[in-house]
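Sequence design from tokenized structure. All designs in this work follow the same two-part layout: the structure record, then the generated sequence. An example of the structure record is given first.
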């Protein structure tokens, strides 16, 4: 699978390109935390996960079709941590049909492998290609990259967050994170290898599994409750409670609102019973005070 359909261009609130990223799942994007900070105009040392949406596009397959994404995973810049300067974004809407997820490869020994990368250095908002050779791992787990050619672009500011494509393995083996600035003549940069990034992907996979299990549990609970109450209502000739709003909230995973609506539904049912099975339409004026418990997750 080619690299180009997965590449992301991240744009600041002032329409300046701050870096790159790449699609790893259907809606999930990997990039550097400092690229997100630059795009939102906040400090690169921001600890808390930003709440503001990030603007981006897919410049090589759907240029200027701007999308919004929220931050769902956040490891800020922190040289004392192995997992640092990593962010995962989730698209708010579906991506263009031309877009494809990157092919990800994990391999320990990459020494001597040729690579290429697409980034956005100063003055090149449309992007440029750079290439070089992969070297070994540094003490912090990052892998060294070297540009051996005499001319052409090297990795520099603006390439951060870009996927590093291994021409030998034909896949992405890491993410560009930093360049040597004090010794520019060396043409050296660094990437976070997929061995490290895979820990983030594992976390995301676990979260997706947990969310799916939670939603299935919630739906099963809701269906079981509805069936039980409906049976009781039918047998005792009580007015049927309207679950339409609750079903819509569960389907869209609006857990907080589902909590509130559940309290209302349960209160209507039990108040009907306590008041001699009167119509629920005139009951439960202050249902939120009746039921303090919470069935759904309050995320």
């Amino acid at each position: 699978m080619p690299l180009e359909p997965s590449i992301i261009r991240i744009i600041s609130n002032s329409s300046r390109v701050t870096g790159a990223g790449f699609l790893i799942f259907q809606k999930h994007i990997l990039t550097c935390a400092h690229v997100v900070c630059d795009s939102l105009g906040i400090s690169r040392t921001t600890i808390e996960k930003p709440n503001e949406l990030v603007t981006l596009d897919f410049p090589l397959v759907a240029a200027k079709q701007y999308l919004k994404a929220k931050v769902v995973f956040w490891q800020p810049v922190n040289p004392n941590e192995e997992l640092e300067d990593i962010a995962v974004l989730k698209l708010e809407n579906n991506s263009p049909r031309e877009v494809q997820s990157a092919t990800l490869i994990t391999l320990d020994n990459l020494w001597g492998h040729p690579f290429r990368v697409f980034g956005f250095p100063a003055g090149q908002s449309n992007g440029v290609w750079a290439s070089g050779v992969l070297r070994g791992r540094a003490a912090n787990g990052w892998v060294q990259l070297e540009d051996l050619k005499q001319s052409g672009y090297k990795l520099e500011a603006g390439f951060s967050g870009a996927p590093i494509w291994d021409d030998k393995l034909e896949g992405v083996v890491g993410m560009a994170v930093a360049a040597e600035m004090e010794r520019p003549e060396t043409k050296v940069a660094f990437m976070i290898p997929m061995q490290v990034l895979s820990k983030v992907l594992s976390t995301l996979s676990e979260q997706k599994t947990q969310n799916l299990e939670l939603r299935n549990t919630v739906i099963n609970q809701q269906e079981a409750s509805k069936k039980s109450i409906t049976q009781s209502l039918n047998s005792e000739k009580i007015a049927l409670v309207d679950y339409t709003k609750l079903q819509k909230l569960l389907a869209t995973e609006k857990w907080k609102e589902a909590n509130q609506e559940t309290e209302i539904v349960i209160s209507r049912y039990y108040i009907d019973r306590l008041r001699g099975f009167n119509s629920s339409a005139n009951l439960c004026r202050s249902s939120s005070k009746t039921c303090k418990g919470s069935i759904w997750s309050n995320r």
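Residues 194-236 form the longest helix (43 residues). We note this feature because it recurs in several other targets discussed in the main text.
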